């Protein structure tokens, strides 16, 4: 029996449209699509960072990646009935991790300059994408988005900042601006 294949001559995406489960066919310029893309990009960057880490740090990033898939599902299905996928415990876990990381770090004396080492630089880049994903999620008012998604993304960027400082160790550089 012949296997049915996708018609590769025409893709709906070629016309600037895409399908989102709760919204149907939407323009790729829709803020919802931007938010989903930002979450996807962040998850990819965290995967690159995780490849350079071991032990508890790597395990923490794997957990974050799993939570980003839950956040993505909440964004894609915003406004649909059913329970949210990302719960309060996810942000609470990040808060606890931030406290653990910060307890071993010296006080900040200026702006941190990324680039102490490769993992720290990947972590700083991931932090900036987490901030963008947070802004994208904040641009979705009135769509019934799980309020834990922007809260989690806010905590995640703080976690990544603390993690980057931890990864930099003594090679950390900062600049004071007056």
Summarize, please.
This protein is 57% helix and 8% strand. The protein has 178 residues and is mainly α.
Explain how this protein is built.
This protein has 178 residues and is mostly helical. The strands form 2 sheets. A two-stranded antiparallel sheet has the order 1-2. A two-stranded antiparallel ribbon has the order 3-4. The chain contains 5 helices and 4 strands. β1 and β2 (24-27) form a beta hairpin. The chain is elongated and about 50 Å long.
Strand order, main sheet: write it out: 1-2
Order of helices and strands: EEHHHEHHE
Biggest sheet architecture: 2 strands, antiparallel
Rg from alpha-carbon coordinates: 19 Å
Question: Would you tell me which CATH topology applies?
Answer: Hypothetical Protein Ta1238, Chain: A
Low-confidence stretches: none
The CATH superfamily name is Cobalamin adenosyltransferase-like
Name of the CATH architecture: Up-down Bundle
Q: Assess the beta-strand content as a share of residues.
A: 5-15%
| SS element count, helices | 5
Instruction: Supply the helix-strand structural class.
Output: mainly alpha
Number of domains: 1
End-to-end CA span: 74 Å
What would CATH call the class?
Mainly Alpha
The percent range for helix content is: 55-70%
What's the mean pLDDT score?
90
Shape: elongated
Number of strands: 4
